[in-house]
Amino acid sequence: MLLIAGAAVYLLPLLWMFSTSLKSSQDVLSFPPQFFPTSWLWQNYPEGWNTLPFGRFTVNTVLVTVLAVVGTLISCVLPAYAFARMRARSRGFLFALTLATMMIPGEVLLVPQFIMFSEAGLVNTLWPLFLPAWFGTAFYIFLLRQFFLTIPRELDDAARLDGASSLRILWSIILPLSKPPLVAVTVFAFVANWNNVIGPIVYLRSLDKYTLAVGLRLFQGQHATDYNHLMAVSMLTIIPIVVVFLLLQRAFIQGVALSGMGGR
């Protein structure tokens, strides 16, 4: 009963947003507020979607998100494997140094990163939105490293006796056994990049390069009181996140729960 009550509290804003997306302008501003619309206006969805080029925004968002997720997985799996399975001098210090970068707020990095991408001529392109993901994220490295520690080392030794290299062990043994943390990192990275607002606002200048998050902000600025269409477009933009989570929720929960059990 407590879980049901808590879920109802968290779902209420989403249900209110869905209800608002089907209301007329008069129903939205009516007082006292009404939860259910007097007439269900499904045309609010195509009308709101066609107000701005949200189709182009979706293509940009999908492209940035896919490239960022792929870059995150590649750039985080390799150092996590090295920290967990390879013996090297100062390995613990380097891992602690990696975790220390989590204490640096992302806003602090905006100015130097903008200067760097500006000097490279990449402002007003999609490159600055996904390129940093190809250089690793400390939190994801930590999650993967903790799970890799739970995999018996005897598997590595047996593979080395058969002549397998470190990369072959990673590809053939470690990764097939690490689906839960990989799914968890995928979901985290997907949601973070899909909802990213600050990056596109800082780097993008052209309308045809905007992402969905910036498109919603632009819609809100141009149609401040058009709440029903704004809620309709917002509902459409969160559908991919809901679908991804529902498809991967079991492995995602396992990944988050098991990644903290590894030892050293």
Write out key terms for the chains shown.
single chain, mainly alpha, MetI-like fold
Describe the structure.
- The structure is a single chain.
- The protein is mainly alpha-helical and 264 residues long.
- The protein has a single domain, classed as MetI-like (MetI-like fold).
- The chain has helices at residues 2-21, 25-28, 44-49, 54-85, 91-100, 110-119, 127-130, 138-148, 154-161, 166-174, 179-194, 198-203, 212-222, 227-258.
Quick synopsis:
This protein is mostly helical and 264 residues long. It has helices at residues 2-21, 25-28, 44-49, 54-85, 91-100, 110-119, 127-130, 138-148, 154-161, 166-174, 179-194, 198-203, 212-222, 227-258.
Write the layout of secondary structure elements.
Elements: H1 2-21, H2 25-28, H3 44-49, H4 54-85, H5 91-100, H6 110-119, H7 127-130, H8 138-148, H9 154-161, H10 166-174, H11 179-194, H12 198-203, H13 212-222, H14 227-258
Give me the CATH architecture, please: Orthogonal Bundle
H and E string = HHHHHHHHHHHHHH
Name of the CATH class: Mainly Alpha
Could you give me the name of the CATH homologous superfamily?
MetI-like
Would you give the CATH topology? MetI-like fold
Oligomer: single chain
The total domain count is 1
Question: How does the major sheet shape up?
Answer: none
Principal-axis shape:
globular
What's the count of strands?
0
Mean pLDDT: 89
Beta-strand content bin: under 5%
Structure class? mainly alpha
Work out the helicity level: 55-70%
The number of distinct helices, counting runs of at least 4 residues, comes to 14
What is the CA–CA distance across the termini?
A: 39 Å
Radius of gyration: 23 Å
Low-pLDDT ranges: none
